[in-house]
Amino acid sequence: MDGQHFQRILVPVDFEPASDEAIERGTAVSAGAQSVEFSPASLRAVSMAATVARGSKGTIVMLHATPPMHSTAMYTGPVSLPSGVIEEIENKARATSLAALQHLKEQLCPGLPVEYAVGPGHPAQCVLDEAERTGADLIVMAASGRSRVARFFVGSTADRVIRESPCPVLVIPAH
C-alpha cells in the first residue's frame, strides 16, 4: 500500500495532568485551566501521522478518550451525582482535551488538515468506534509502555485495536 491510500489517519492521543517536574522543565502544556503533559510515544505518534499525512495529502483525526462518568458506577446506595454535575465535568474534560489537541496540531501538524474527536469512553472502544465513524485508512498510536504482567491483568489498548481494527495500525514503541 502506498501513502496515497492513507487519506484519513486516526491518532489516539493520551495525556495526563502535568507533574511538577514537567512544569518546572517547561514541557507541560497549558490546556485551558489545566497543565498537561504528553508521553514521548504519543508525541512520536502524532509526528509520524503528520509525516504520513503530508506524503499522502491526508487528514489527521486526533482522538482523546476522557474517562466515562456514570453516576450509577460511581456510587452505590442512596447517594449519586446530579446529571448536571456529570455534564459539567464532561464539558470541562472536553474543553481541556480540545485545547491540548489543538496545541499538538500547532506544534506538530502545521499546515495539515486536522479534525478532533473527544468524548467519554474506554480508550480501545473509542479508537475502534472512531475508526469506523471516520472511515480511517490508518491508525497511528503509541504503545502504553506497561510491562507484560500489567498488560496481562489490565489489557492493552493497542493489542485490542490491532486485533479489531478495520484498517492497518502503526504502533509507536513506548521507549
How is this fold's topology laid out?
Blueprint: E1 8-12, E2 15-17, H1 20-25, E3 29-31, E4 34-38, H2 40-56, E5 59-66, H3 71-74, H4 83-108, E6 114-120, H5 123-134, E7 138-142, H6 148-154, H7 157-164, E8 169-172
Helix pairs in contact: 5-7
Q: Which properties best describe this structure?
A:
single chain, 175 residues, alpha/beta, Rossmann fold, five-stranded parallel β-sheet, three-stranded antiparallel β-sheet, 7 helices, globular
Protein described:
With 175 residues, the chain is α/β, with parallel strands linked by helices. The chain is built from 7 helices and 8 strands. The protein has a 5-stranded parallel beta sheet, sandwiched between helices. The longest helix has 26 residues. About 3% of the residues have low confidence.
Q: How would you summarize this macromolecular structure in one to three sentences?
A:
This protein has a single domain, classed as 3-Layer(aba) Sandwich (Rossmann fold). It contains seven helices and eight strands, in the order ββαββαβααβαβααβ.
- In the CATH scheme, the class would be Alpha Beta
H-E string: EEHEEHEHHEHEHHE
Distance separating the two termini: 27 Å
Task: List how many beta strands DSSP finds.
Answer: 8
Describe the biggest sheet? 5 strands, parallel
CATH fold naming: Rossmann fold
Q: pLDDT under 50 segments (min length 5)? A: 149-154
User: What is the topology, as strand order, of the major beta sheet?
Assistant: 6-5-1-7-8
CATH homology superfamily: HUPs
